[in-house]
Q: What sequence folds into this?
């Protein structure tokens, strides 16, 4: 299993405060991610193993921009915690499936949804104000601008 480790960015004029915040969070909380060697629950979702502190979670992410192919731990951090936040912000399973374009009749998805919803409480405890933060704007993510544009380049 190949674990992604934090990149060491050289302090340059291109350094974004969001990247520094993510690097600090990764370092202080012991965050690592790797592609999961677990069964797929849906052909559109990629399993990623997230270790944070002493806890380990499998997070299934919709990687519509192929961000995991960059093998960039900061980008992976954003992808994984954004996926968790999308679930946390969804009103229910059916809403999440609709937002992600997933089949709500998939019982593996329902089981995963319930498991990750139960895990969100403990994941929140690692964050300031007990709320998951992936440190960037969703608009930047969708438009490939700012930090995301830099990380994807």
A:
């Amino acid at each position: 299993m190949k674990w992604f480790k934090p990149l060491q960015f050289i302090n340059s004029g291109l350094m974004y405060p969001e990247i520094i915040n993510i690097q600090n969070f990764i370092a202080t909380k012991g965050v690592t991610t790797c592609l999961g060697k677990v069964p797929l629950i849906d052909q559109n979702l990629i399993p990623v193993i997230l270790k944070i502190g002493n806890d380990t979670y499998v997070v299934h992410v919709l990687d519509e921009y192929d961000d995991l192919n960059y093998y960039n731990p900061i980008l992976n951090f954003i992808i994984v915690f954004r996926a968790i936040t999308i679930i946390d912000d969804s009103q229910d399973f059916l809403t999440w499936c609709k937002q992600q374009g997933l089949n709500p009749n998939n019982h593996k998805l329902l089981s995963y949804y319930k498991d990750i919803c139960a895990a969100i409480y403990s994941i929140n405890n690692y964050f300031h104000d007990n709320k998951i933060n992936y440190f960037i704007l969703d608009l930047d993510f969708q438009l490939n601008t700012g930090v995301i544009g830099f990380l994807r380049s």
Notes: Residues 33-152 form one domain. The first helix runs from residue 17 to 29. Residues 5-13 have pLDDT under 50 and may be disordered.
